[in-house]
Amino acid sequence: MQNDLQTPEEIRQHIWKELGRASRDRHHAWRTPVLATAADNGLVNARTVVLRDVDAALRTLVVFTDSRSPKVSEIGKQQAGLFVFWSSRLSWQVRARVTLSIQTSGPEVDAYWQQVSQSAGARDYMAQTAPGTVCAGAANTAGADTGTPHFAVMKAQVTEMDWLELGRGGHRRARILADGWEWLMP
Ligand SMILES: Cc1cc2nc3c(=O)[nH]c(=O)nc-3n(C[C@H](O)[C@H](O)[C@H](O)COP(=O)(O)O)c2cc1C
Questions:
Q1: How does residue 4 score in pLDDT terms, banded at 50, 70 and 90?
Q2: For the chain, first and last CA: distance in Å?
Q3: What's the CA-to-centroid distance between 48 and ligand 1, angstroms?
Q4: Cα of 49 to ligand 1 centre, how many Å?
């Protein structure tokens, strides 16, 4: 709990500071948010992802994914998404409403791939078989690496945040927009 933060503007700045930290610190609770999106047929989908990069000035979040994963085609049809972050250290939940886009080529993707390709994580984007493919056994049967990366950068433009702070003396909640805010009943 951050009782020294009194105004939503202070809170907004602190949220972005923590998001930036989370993108650099693998132990930060906000490193692995849940991202919910709309699936086909009116269903919803949600999954854990790793927060890879954050731009507080542009209000963007970056996640890496396999370009063949179901979420990529889902986002092609419906760009609305929602990240859910919870930190027990902060006692903060942030629900960030976002507009999602996928990039598979271009200088930005090349720069991120440059980083990833040096790491063991590169294998995640080079499996022969697409994520979610039905397979015969429970073992990892993704097959040998193809040598071809199926690397995609998912960019999320934050449009609105719902911030909730749990406190022993009472909870606080605010809706934080790009150019304004309002207190909400917790
Ligand atoms: C801790 C953790 C981190 C994950 N990070 C990512 C990630 O950064 N990108 C990603 O595409 N999938 C990530 N996954 C896998 C997803 O949760 C999901 O299973 C996979 O992307 C398929 O999702 P989809 O079927 O909705 O496309 C992660 C899973 C866990 C448990």
A1: confident
A2: 15
A3: 5
A4: 5
For residue 132 and ligand 1, the question of a CB distance below 6 A is answered with yes
Q: Please give the structure tokens belonging to residue 26.
A: 């693998």
φ/ψ region of 84 (left if φ > 0, alpha if ψ in -120 to 50, else beta) reads beta
Between residues 130 and 175, which one has the greater pLDDT? Answer: 175
User: Is the separation of the CB atoms in 74 and 45 below 8 Å?
Assistant: yes
Q: Whose CA is nearest to atom 6 of ligand 1?
A: 49
Establish whether residue 45 lines the binding site of ligand 1, counting it when its CB lies within 6 angstroms of any ligand atom: yes
pTM over 0.85: yes
Q: 121: Cβ below 6 Å to ligand 1?
A: no
Q: Which amino acid would we find at residue 38?
A: A
Cα-to-centroid distance, 47 and ligand 1 (Å)? 6
Structural domain boundaries in the chain: 8-127+146-184
Q: What integer pLDDT is reported at residue 7 of this predicted model?
A: 87
Confirm or reject: Cβ of 3 under 6 Å from ligand 1.
no
Q: Cα separation of 51 and 63, whole Å?
A: 5
CATH number of 8-127+146-184: 2.30.110.10
CA distance linking residue 55 with residue 140, whole number of Å? 35
